[in-house]
């Protein structure tokens, strides 16, 4: 078990009194505590869940994807599903609600917390917005939020409400409906509208603002939003590091600056590749088109080392509540980069084994203890859900920051 | 007179019926309209007004400063007076209120609109704040605003409420009380507190946010402040161009970006020197210390050309309502730069003559007209105050955007 001080904020101590059905203490018995779920969100983008849940691909492809999903389930407890408007509803009025509901349900049944990404973004937005007036675009965008957040309530209760607002009104690569309305509303104005609708549609949801911009721009935007009364539940920070690992110094500096708000921080889209680095002079990562971007053994080792350091720094920071690896597999990864933790053939890279070890071993608690004469046993462990096993009996318990003594009938 | 279309937004047309004391039309008489004051604020920093008004310097020095002030009065209708806290109140509880009131009164009596600069800033702030807790600093800062804005009400009704907020919480050149509290409150938070107190203390005042940062940072800050309900009356933009004139392209780009808010824009601190340029690689202008920075004939011509272009672009823009030349004279100019429009010996540079021509001639209206049979005459002119002279009689009229017909008894 790691140094308790280092991870103290991720752990708690709980005293349990075990009694039998008649109310008598279960004294001097061996008890195993096995962590089944983390409170911390170890997430991953796993868009293949849509095909797997809907079983709408050929059998051999389905088997391949099911194997991929099995590997995913062995490590993560969080999944990001795609809600890019232009793909979710390419034809107005025909959203892929059922397909995505099936995927979200499939994941939920496997104890995975699902996040929807994103509800409002200028990229991959619905092309048919371009034929509308700005007032109509805004109404369509709000109606989209109301519809989708409501349709997925209970299956998806975490949303990237609005994505990349810093650049949104000055995005000039191509005309799109969302940039148009963001110019009208201003940055804080559009955030306000989208969050208001998201909150109305699912008051208990965790609603995120998300951006790749980690400069002072994003700090001031968040500051403005909070002062304008917008109820942001968590600050989303993208970290696509195709041009090289940020390193400890930048990472800690970013954490320090975004901690001032006292809000939970989610690293929503993390990429560290196992290939050569993208040249540093490329400003928009989308501009880099490389025909074949191989994963190599040397770079796979580097990727694992960087992921270990980065995850450790983030897991240590008290405000970070989620880290999402963006691409699970190199297959279909953004920009064709070897950004996955498994290769195109589903074979695990060192980073996969490393993350599995961190999440399921180093940062999990699996201990055996013994009750005292009064049936009392104390567990200290990482926050989350546990199976308590005593003889042939098993019960579920939760370790959260509400410590104290619980009495369990076993 | 310049092209009427170009300056149409600065002008209006007014029809006046002149009658004599008995109510009879003053028919077929020559009438002179002489502009005495501009609605547009052509301002200038003129800290020497404090010595002139208080007459607390030796006689020869006083005569020299009076000559300087005369030159100032021949061109400008606005003045910026210094309220740097560390100089205004170097010893806690002993502010230089009387001296500054005398200066403001002296200027007001000469038909000059006075602005106070600044109420809250991390630079040249009171050093004795450093001994206080953050709560005490905030209270002292708010009390300072309440006291000074109240003490000067009627004399000074325009304030740079808070200066350079973008950098304020990350300013790291030296410790100071204002940076400390800005870290606590956040940028939008400190703006909110200062504006709230300023507004309470003088509800009718014109309250500005002011910054040298013209990047997207400042745009997002303003956006956040407005969405947080802060009543900013005008956006203040500094333009200290010691490293070279921005040029038309940047100037128009800045105007375009800061126009989105629909608020009046004040160019609050404009510098174009008549000397060599400061090297472009200097980030904080304060870091450039040059023992002697001469004004040369060649660069004085350049200064005049640049001022002509810049003032023309700004005067043409419908949202710009004020331009302030930061240093009137090279004497005591910031950074020792030849930033004035008069030299250290009070001799006018070409820029002085140019500005006088623009303000008092090209952008002023002085016309002679004749009343018709009904005593009616129409004037089209730049917005502001006028003397109407008919024979040996003189009355004052105002040309503002509330057009229509006025009847004047002469």
UniProtKB/TrEMBL annotation, chains A, B:
<keyword id="KW-0624">Polysaccharide degradation</keyword>
<dbReference type="InterPro" id="IPR017853">
    <property type="entry name" value="GH"/>
</dbReference>
<keyword id="KW-0326">Glycosidase</keyword>
<comment type="similarity">
    <text>Belongs to the glycosyl hydrolase 10 (cellulase F) family.</text>
</comment>
<keyword id="KW-0378">Hydrolase</keyword>
<protein>
    <recommendedName>
        <fullName>Beta-xylanase</fullName>
        <ecNumber>3.2.1.8</ecNumber>
    </recommendedName>
</protein>
<dbReference type="GO" id="GO:0031176">
    <property type="term" value="F:endo-1,4-beta-xylanase activity"/>
</dbReference>
<dbReference type="InterPro" id="IPR001000">
    <property type="entry name" value="GH10_dom"/>
</dbReference>
<dbReference type="GO" id="GO:0045493">
    <property type="term" value="P:xylan catabolic process"/>
</dbReference>
<dbReference type="InterPro" id="IPR044846">
    <property type="entry name" value="GH10"/>
</dbReference>
<keyword id="KW-0732">Signal</keyword>
<dbReference type="Pfam" id="PF00331">
    <property type="entry name" value="Glyco_hydro_10"/>
</dbReference>
<feature type="domain" description="GH10">
    <location>
        <begin position="59"/>
        <end position="358"/>
    </location>
</feature>
<keyword id="KW-0119">Carbohydrate metabolism</keyword>
<keyword id="KW-0858">Xylan degradation</keyword>
């Amino acid at each position: 078990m790691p140094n308790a001080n280092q991870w103290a904020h991720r752990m708690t101590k709980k005293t349990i009194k075990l009694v039998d059905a008649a109310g008598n203490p279960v004294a001097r018995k061996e008890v195993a505590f096995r962590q089944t779920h983390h409170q911390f969100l170890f997430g991953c983008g796993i868009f293949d869940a849509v095909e797997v849940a809907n079983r709408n691909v050929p059998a051999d492809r389905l088997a391949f994807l099911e194997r991929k999903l099995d590997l995913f389930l062995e490590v993560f407890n969080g999944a990001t599903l795609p809600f890019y408007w232009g793909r979710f509803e390419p034809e107005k009025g025909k959203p892929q609600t059922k397909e995505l509901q099936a995927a979200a349900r499939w994941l939920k049944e496997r104890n995975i917390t699902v996040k929807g990404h994103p509800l409002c973004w200028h990229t991959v937005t619905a092309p048919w917005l371009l034929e509308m007036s700005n007032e109509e675009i805004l109404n369509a965008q709000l109606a989209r939020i109301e519809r989708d957040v409501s349709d997925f309530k209970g299956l998806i209760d975490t949303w990237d409400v609005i994505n990349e607002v810093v650049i949104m009104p000055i995005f000039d690569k191509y005309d799109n409906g969302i940039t148009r309305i963001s110019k009208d509303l201003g940055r804080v104005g559009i955030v306000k509208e989208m969050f208001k609708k998201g909150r109305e549609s699912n008051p208990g949801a965790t609603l995120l603002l998300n951006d790749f911009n980690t400069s002072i721009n994003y700090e001031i935007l968040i500051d403005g939003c909070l002062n304008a009364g917008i109820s942001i539940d968590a600050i989303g920070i993208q970290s696509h590091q195709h041009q090289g690992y940020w390193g400890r110094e930048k990472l800690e500096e970013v954490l320090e600056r975004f901690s001032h708000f006292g809000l939970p921080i989610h690293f929503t889209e993390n990429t560290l590749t196992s290939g050569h680095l993208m040249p540093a002079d490329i400003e928009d990562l989308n501009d880099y088109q490389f025909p074949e971007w191989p994963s190599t053994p040397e770079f796979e080792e580097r990727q694992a080392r960087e992921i270990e350091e980065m995850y450790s720094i983030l897991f240590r920071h008290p405000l970070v509540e989620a880290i999402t690896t963006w691409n699970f597999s190199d297959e279909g990864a953004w920009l064709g980069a070897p950004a996955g933790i498994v290769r195109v053939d589903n074979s695990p890279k060192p980073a996969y084994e490393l993350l599995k070890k961190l999440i399921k071993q180093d940062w999990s608690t699996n201990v055996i203890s013994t009750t005292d004469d009064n049936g009392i046993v104390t567990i200290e462990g990482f926050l989350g859900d546990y199976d308590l096993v005593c003889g042939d009996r098993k019960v579920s318990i939760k370790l959260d920051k509400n410590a104290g003594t619980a009495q369990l009938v076993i």
